[in-house]
Amino acid sequence: MKHNMKKTVYAAGLSAAVAAAALGLGGCAAGTQIPDTLKVQNIGAAENVITVTGREEVKVVPDMAQIEYAVYTREDTAAACQEKNAQDLNAAIETLKGLGVEETSIQTSSYGLSPIRNWNSDRQEITGYEMTTSLTVSDIPIDNAGTIITKSVAAGVNGINSVSYFSSSYDASYQEALKGAMAVAQAKAQALAEASGKTLAGVVHAEEFGYRPETRYASYNSGGSAKMAAAVEDAAAPVMPGQVSVEAQVTVSYELNE
Q: What is the distance between the alpha carbons of residues 241 and 218, in angstroms, rounded to a whole number?
């Protein structure tokens, strides 16, 4: 029998049935953590629809690295400081190219030249100049990252600001996570439908959330770049990329059969 007033799932018995059904969903997608929140939307004669969310996370091992170097110089005059910095920077770039890094993967990302003042004096006179140039090197195979870091330091790099890792298979992994999220959403909707004494008729609306290509990067920011550079100068730098999380989330609305 159809009723004009909308049915909202508030009854304690139905809530318990839904909770029990949801707890039995752990086997539908291995390693999936089902979100605690469920949204039930307008189950009624006019809008016989329920809306649920699904989330899945896939872990992938990175195979590429991006390194942000720093070349720091300190000299008595601005001109001498800039000249020395350029020399060290060019030496590092030539070393990178000699190690097989493409020119398109090397970018001077920032410059900074500033005076050094004696803040303890009344006149705060300038005692010298310092300059830092940041150099970003991308598309480095993980297997070569340790050697490239070590050789770069030997060539004149005296700071490492960050090492970032990413997976070249991010898009394929995201598609896998997206399918898993849809499977979770369907299982949850099935449990709600059964608890309501109904069955699923089909999907009427679906929304995707979570596609963030920039999150393929997992960064390590060194606390002291000079110390880090000194530590890798005499030996190949250890590179431990760990894993990158690829996450997908969907919101899906299902029509119910009477």
A: 8
- CATH number, domain containing residue 55: 3.30.110.170
Same domain, 29 and 102: no
Give the other-Cβ count within 10 Å of 229's Cβ.
Answer: 23
Q: What is the pLDDT of residues 48-63, one digit of tens each?
A: 899 999 999 998 888 8
Of 112, 134, 166, the position where a domain reaches its end is 166
The whole-angstrom separation of Cα 55 and Cα 29 is 10
Contact 165, 65 (CB under 8 A): yes
Q: Which domain holds residue 192?
A: 12-61+170-212+247-257
Single pTM value for the model: 0.58
pLDDT tens digits along 99-117: 999 999 999 888 899 999 9
* CA atoms of 93 and 157, how far apart (whole Å): 10
Residue after which a domain boundary falls, among 135, 151, 166:
166
Sign for the CA dihedral angle at 30, 32, 33, 37 comes to negative
User: What is the spatial order of strands in the sheet that 126-141 belongs to?
Assistant: 106-117, 126-141, 64-75, 159-166, 218-221
Report yes or no: 25 and 184 within 8 Å, Cβ to Cβ.
Answer: yes
Q: Is the residue at 241 inside a domain? A: no
Q: What are phi and psi of 154, to 5 degrees?
A: -65, -25
Looking at the domain assignment, is residue 223 inside a domain? Answer: no
**Nearest CA-CA partner of 222 in 135, 150, 166, 163:** 163
> In total, how many domains does the chain have?
2
Give dist(CA 88, CA 75) in Å, integer: 13
Residue 64 phi/psi, 5° resolution? Answer: -135, 155
CATH of the domain at 156: 3.30.70.2970
